[in-house]
Protein 1
Amino acid sequence: MESTNQHYDEAISSLKRERYRITEPRKALLRLLIEAEKPLSAEEAHAALGADCYDLVTVYRNLETFDSAGIATRIPTEAGKSLYELNAEEHHHHHIICRKCHKAERLDHCEIEKLETLATKLGFTEVTHVLELYGVCDDCR
Ligand SMILES: [Zn+2]
Ligand SMILES: [Zn+2]
């Protein structure tokens, strides 16, 4: 598992490569996402960063920027909200998300490669997939 600083430096490099400015709010948000080690909503990130420094719209826009720059992934919830997680190159995974409290747990297993192989056999290239599972967690049951 790569260190926090290495992950941070790589993400900053990616932002620069995509010609995004490295602002203080973006740096703070990046550190927060790395340290959280779980997907966060804009509201959660906003609360953690301190409402005095960063308004929610800025947090939301910067999360979208991270998604566009390819350093974070947006995870849709059933309620139409979004969670954001930093991309980790080393392992592909999915999530189970609580539809009540939006807690997200990582599922390290993926069976979808079989479907991707089928899609490839139909002549498609650059096949990817998005899959999230939803349920009710132990705390909310
Ligand atoms: Zn829950
Ligand atoms: Zn998968």
Note: The chain has one domain: 2-135.
Protein 2
Amino acid sequence: MSKLRIGLIGAGGIATSVHIPAYEAIADKVEIVAIADVAYDRAKLIAERHQIPAVFDNYETMLTETEIDAVSVCVPNKFHKAAVINALTAGCHVLCEKPPAMNQEEAKEMEDTARRAGKLLMYGFHYRFQSETQAAKRFIDAGELGDIYSGRVQAIRRRGIPGWGVFTNKELQGGGPLIDIGVHMLDTALYLMGYPEPAVVLGKTHQQIGTKKGVGLMGDWDYQNYSVEDMAIGMITFNNGASLVLESAFAANVEKQDTMQVSLMGNKGGADIFPLKMYQEKHDTLVDVTPAYLPEVHAHQVEIHSFVAQCLSGNVTDHYAKQGTNIQKIIDGLYQSAETGKAVYL
Ligand SMILES: NC(=O)c1ccc[n+]([C@@H]2O[C@H](COP(=O)([O-])OP(=O)(O)OC[C@H]3O[C@@H](n4cnc5c(N)ncnc54)[C@H](O)[C@@H]3O)[C@@H](O)[C@H]2O)c1
């Protein structure tokens, strides 16, 4: 079989640190044939470094002038929708970085376009591909936790406001920690819970630390133009009766520097996922179950290699695109609820 021809939209942080190396690691299956970035010099530099033959200052020209089978979309959130729709319409499979989009309307349009085009649209939710998540999934699928009726997700940094990129710009990102890091843990929880349909959400956001100069453990951020929340709290109920609470922060006065955790509670057992520990009652005894060994994986790479394998197999599914709309619906609801002070019925 011939190699999958990849085009990259965006030559910034995630494209160069994750997507390019992951594609290069399977050079027998893929070749990166083109790269486009509005910052042409940046794209050119990256292209020279990685021997990418074609460089463009806009992806529209890249998509019309180059034979491409699949595209990685690695641009700020505001530009996901247009890039994804253009690439799908040009006949490419698409791996779009997370979050899917700025809001659910955009995500739905992207989902519908993928279905119409008969192409794969997958999102960069790499925590699904961690060993812990995959092991937990096997236990859950085997019924070890029973019915999962409640969960908690945490993506909390003590002082982790990014000092680079556009992560603190609401106009370009759609929000702060909720849409940027909370979304990773939310996706992991939903994935393990079987992506239930959300029913009602209640959200509250806070902006207490980001707008002031302070200690930056992820660089010095632009506190004068800080336009996103620094903490988001949420409660989500689902049509199947389950519930989930969410805490997400770029900065909070807490002990730990960084917490990324998903906890699930079922009627036969519970689990914390990172690291994986499960809690059950067996033979009149409360027991904890921990894996003695889990393979170390590079989850970003596993995600990208899974995308490639699916593109090459031609086995196109719309379930990632549907899940993208679903998660975006929850995020929109939480932000809307935070704004209005009322619960949002989805
Ligand atoms: N999966 C993860 O853990 C993870 C980590 C970091 C970032 N991301 C996501 O990746 C995306 C990009 O983030 P980043 O950190 O690489 O940002 P970045 O700012 O480092 O890079 C973005 C690049 O996109 C380019 N660009 C902007 N608009 C464009 C357009 N219309 N066409 C072509 N290029 C354009 C910029 O010039 C820049 O080079 C975001 O959606 C972010 O949420 C995901």
Note: The first strand starts at residue 4 and ends at 9.
Protein 3
Amino acid sequence: MSAMLRAESLSHRVPTSEGPLTLLNNISLQLARGESLAITGASGSGKSTLLGLLAGLDRPTEGRIWLAGDEITAMDEEQRAAVRARCVGFVFQTFQLLPGLTAQENVMLPSELRGDRNAAGRAAEFLGRVGLEHRLGHYPRQLSGGEQQRVAIARAFASFSGNDGILFADEPTGSLDAGNGEKVIDLLFELNAESATTLVLVTHEQRLAERCHSHLRMAAGEIQGADLQPRDGGNLSEVSA
Ligand SMILES: Nc1ncnc2c1ncn2[C@@H]1O[C@H](COP(=O)(O)OP(=O)(O)O)[C@@H](O)[C@H]1O
Ligand SMILES: [Mg+2]
């Protein structure tokens, strides 16, 4: 089976007044459909930069990335936007819900922009799956932090049109208390299993990293180490990299 996500020798540099600054150096990775990957590392190690590049939000200065079989590094912004609309969901650390829209309107926005006539129905369905069927008409300020994070997750899952989705989440539990954090994580893995979505999570939590099939540890823009986890109590040898 072809990989859902593959990156080959990614490096990313940005210009500064003191010359180019290397944010990422020589990162390669691969993830099969339906699998989960955790990315951990100290603050400033390049996790968010890497996530944005892998999701096609930005372009690396060197290296190649394939998403669902398409080489996004060979595309312009418009073509990458089309790939994102087809298969990418992104959960931002700070939710990034629009304050003037209700929960349902926030979740339906990406599918509406795609021209989906059933955007409202799909949004209600995904909000039901995250346990917020009774909060469709609430505005973000009327929701708790945990509820807002669940809206952001419903929006990410509703945002791609195909079955072939990949969901990127940047510290999805970073601003939640332990109880709500646990619920959000359970939810991500449930939706991952139900809809065979591929997951890429940036996290500070070892416990969360341990639930993923594989785990990359980053330091100063480089991969410092990688593990494959046993899956469903199986052997490491049964896990496909
Ligand atoms: N556009 C940019 N210009 C200059 N430095 C940046 C830029 N984006 C990120 N950085 C720096 O790159 C490093 C990695 O950032 P980031 O990917 O956000 O790390 P993490 O998510 O692991 O905390 C940080 O030191 C950050 O300050
Ligand atoms: Mg970050």
Note: The beta strands are 3-14, 21-32, 36-41, 62-67, 70-71, 88-91, 166-170, 198-202, 214-219, 222-228.
